Amino acid sequence: MDPAITVSGVSVRRWLVALLTITTLAACGSDKPARTAAGAPPAASEQTAPGAQTPASEPTPAKSPTTPASPQQSNEARAAAFVKQQPGTFGIVVRDRRTGAVWKAGNTTATTWTASTIKLAIAADLLERHRQQAVTLDGTDRANLDKALINSDNDAATALWNRYDGPGMLGRFKSRFGMSGLSVVAGYDTFWRNLRCSAEDLQALMGYVLDKLDPADRAYLVKTLRGVAGNQRWGVWAAGSGLTPGNKDGWAQKPVNGRTVWVTHTVGFAGAGERYVVAAMYEQGPSGTLGKGAHAVSDAVAMYFGAPVPAKITTP
């Protein structure tokens, strides 16, 4: 205490006023921020107390461009980004039959050679015509259906095509199955190996099988596609065994714009009660390979369903 100030009611008040004035001047005496050692944490008075909220007027700092994507990024966003990164033309469609929601990535309307995916349309058409008594499938035909779907046997598909007016099937593929983009590749004969369609067309085909085909024929196709041979255990198969997927895959080297490229496609279903319809078509560039294509469509499916990536698959 200052000895010049006497202890009295008035003197004490003057002493308190003087003390407050000195304290205020000391706090405001400099407008330069205090320097801290590099990497040192801010002073305790600058830290936000645990549980306290940042004032609304304080903007959230922008993330650095090098900040990795959040692990909470949605499966759909990851899959879409992956599809976009692939060279060539890639389109994938997933439809939830329970909610009606449809997810798409890439170019889902682009058409390319169907490869063996069209064997599913041939099977659906013949089963429906047999049900309507328009044709009669015998034991040999039934065996060829199994071979065409399970092993993707080309000779079996050709036998069915030739015996049951293959060219006449195309109109039904388009009008009944909803494959509006289906066509014969320009300059080629009307034959099952010379057709082209889009991922949207394959999704419509699989949807027809699951939603409109006679229950007994539907059950046969679902069981058969779940039991495909090892050369087709990729694509929709990559959704994971927990989703009991089934699929018909297609793969081939085909001429496109004067060059030979690989096409790797998959169409099928996944989930309890075949909840999800999945269709993907991938036309690679000249540097593509069968392995690259099969793994690409498989990884896209795996990402969407949250299965491990790279997908554990068997390629042809």
Key words describing this protein structure:
alpha+beta, 5-stranded antiparallel β-sheet, Beta-lactamase, 37% helix, 316 residues, 3-stranded antiparallel β-sheet, disordered N terminus, 9 helices
Explain what this protein looks like in three dimensions.
The chain is α+β, with helices and mostly antiparallel strands. The chain has one domain: Beta-lactamase, CATH 3.40.710.10. Helix 2 (75-85) runs antiparallel to helix 9. The chain has 9 helices and 8 strands. Helices cover 37% and strands 16% of the residues. Residues 1-72 have low confidence and may be disordered. The protein has helices spanning 9-27, 75-85, 118-131, 139-151, 154-163, 166-175, 199-211, 215-226, 290-305, and strands at 89-96, 102-106, 112-113, 183-184, 195-197, 246-256, 259-270, 276-283. The strands form 2 sheets. It has a 5-stranded antiparallel β-sheet, with helices on both faces. A 3-stranded antiparallel β-sheet has the order 3-5-4.
What is the CATH third-level topology name? Beta-lactamase
Mean pLDDT value: 83
Strand content: 15-25%
Helical run tally:
9
CATH architecture: 3-Layer(aba) Sandwich
Look at the structure and give the CATH class: Alpha Beta
> What Rg do the Cα atoms give?
33 Å
Give me the count of strands: 8
What form results from the Cα inertia axes?
globular
Termini Cα gap: 94 Å
Q: Could you state the order of secondary-structure elements as H and E?
A: HHEEEHHHHEEHHEEEH
Number of domains: 1
Portion of residues within helices: 25-40%
The description of the largest β-sheet is: 5 strands, antiparallel
CATH superfamily: DD-peptidase/beta-lactamase superfamily
